[in-house]
């Protein structure tokens, strides 16, 4: 992974490069970014850069201190390095091919895993081949994608006490090729209280050791670990950057890329999921649901719920996200008229938004958005689809028909 492989994030890339150039780097970093923001690809590119930065064998704008973690010089080093020049430099280094294929012996990975069979004590190295393949195919994937990739089905992954022992063992060994030993831990939210085993190592690491934790929700990380990390907040990419990436990487038209980028709202993983399900007629499915709720009665509702519950979790989430997208456009259309957003709304969606605006108030639409968000959250956590859509149908009926907005709170 190189910096140019990452969608957008120009300011963060430069911030990371400047941290190294100016000797401002902590021994433990926490890359915190929402799903689809590119926090993991950024961590991978940064780990590759550090692994190749051996003493004097590194790009400089001026004479700079050799030590990565040393005291800051009296006068800060003025830096003119960019992520493009760093990428060009990395490609010339002996260890680049290993780092770029995730086989560098001094870059270690830790991530949620599960036992292959009863009684197993799984650690990340048991799944390292699958991990490398996953990173090559889906670096913007989330933990659900990863667990499905290794055949978890509905099982829960974890970072275990055995994994913590392995980390301690690995990082106390001498480095093989690089001047630095690096641990990239993805999703430390899956690290329970056994993570306290790592506290001493994080606080007093061996020389030239770097921890890079990559997380989506800092409230789920052990506070004792969180307090020992330098926070690097990863914003969601600009919609324009998502659009550009879809055109260049997915080879789709500008109009389609604009629409998908708008719906995904900066989540590149979600944009790829929308593209994968682009042939799905969500608009017709939504009309069927609303007709069942408001016109056709309980039998029609039960039939619709049976159909949607047979779909996979990803399709169910895509459908709810599509409904949410239309509601957001309806609200914008009500307030700002034709200039709905930075892309043109398809005619069938504009017609839906117009009709829904006549049927509901903004407060009702906002209440529905909240319920759809909750439903998507529960789907992600293996909620029973039939029960969930039955409950959601009842709530939407009361919000729309009876104008009971408080039901959403």
Explain how this protein is built.
Helix 8 links the parallel strand 3 and strand 4. The chain is built from 18 helices and five strands. Helix 11 packs across helix 12, helix 13 (282-296) packs antiparallel against helix 14 (298-309) and helix 15 packs across helix 16. It is of the alpha/beta class and 409 residues long. It is 51% helix and 7% strand. The protein has a five-stranded parallel sheet with strand order 2-3-4-1-5, with helices on both faces.
Topology diagram in text:
Layout: H1 10-21, E1 28-33, H2 39-52, H3 83-91, H4 96-100, E2 107-110, H5 128-137, H6 143-149, H7 161-171, E3 181-186, H8 199-203, E4 209-215, H9 223-226, E5 230-234, H10 239-249, H11 254-264, H12 268-276, H13 282-296, H14 298-309, H15 313-336, H16 347-359, H17 362-380, H18 385-401
Helix pairs in contact: 10-11, 11-12, 13-14, 14-18, 15-16, 15-17, 17-18
């Amino acid at each position: 992974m190189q910096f140019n492989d990452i969608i957008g994030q120009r300011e963060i890339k430069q911030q990371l490069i400047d941290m190294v150039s100016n000797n401002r780097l902590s021994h433990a970093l926490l890359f915190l970014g929402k799903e689809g923001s590119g926090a993991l690809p950024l961590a991978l590119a940064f780990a590759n850069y550090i692994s190749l930065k051996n003493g004097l064998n590194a790009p400089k704008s001026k004479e700079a201190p050799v030590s990565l973690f040393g005291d800051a010089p009296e006068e800060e080093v003025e830096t003119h390095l960019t992520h493009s020049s760093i990428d060009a430099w990395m490609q010339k280094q002996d260890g680049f091919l290993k780092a770029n294929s995730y086989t560098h012996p001094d870059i270690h990975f830790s991530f949620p895993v599960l036992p292959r069979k009863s009684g197993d004590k799984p650690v990340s190295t048991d799944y390292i081949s699958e991990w490398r393949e996953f990173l090559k195919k889906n670096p913007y994937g989330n933990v659900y994608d990863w667990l499905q990739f290794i055949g978890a089905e509905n099982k829960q992954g974890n970072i275990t006490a055995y994994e913590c022992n392995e980390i301690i063992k690995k990082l106390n060994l001498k480095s093989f090729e690089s001047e630095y030993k690096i641990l990239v831990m993805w999703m430390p939210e899956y690290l329970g209280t056994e993570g306290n085993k790592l506290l001493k190592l994080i606080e007093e690491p061996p020389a030239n050791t770097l921890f890079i934790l990559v997380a989506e929700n800092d409230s789920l990380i052990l506070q004792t670990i969180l307090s020992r990390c330098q926070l690097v907040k990863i914003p969601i990419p600009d919609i324009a950057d998502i659009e550009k990436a879809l055109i260049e990487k997915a080879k789709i038209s500008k109009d389609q890329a604009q629409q998908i980028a708008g719906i995904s709202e900066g989540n590149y993983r979600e944009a790829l999921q929308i593209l994968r399900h682009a042939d799905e007629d969500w608009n017709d499915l939504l009309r069927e649901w609303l007709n069942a709720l408001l016109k056709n009665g309980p039998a029609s509702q039960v039939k619709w719920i049976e159909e949607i519950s047979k779909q996979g979790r990803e399709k169910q989430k895509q459908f709810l996200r599509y409904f949410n997208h239309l509601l957001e456009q309806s609200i914008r259309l009500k307030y700002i008229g034709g200039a709905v957003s930075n892309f043109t709304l398809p005619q069938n969606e504009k017609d839906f938004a117009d009709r829904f605006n006549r049927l509901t108030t903004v407060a009702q639409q906002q209440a529905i958005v909240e319920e759809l968000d909750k439903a998507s959250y529960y789907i992600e956590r293996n909620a029973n689809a039939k029960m969930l859509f039955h409950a959601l149908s009842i709530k939407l009926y009361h919000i729309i028909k009876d104008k009971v907005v408080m039901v959403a709170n």
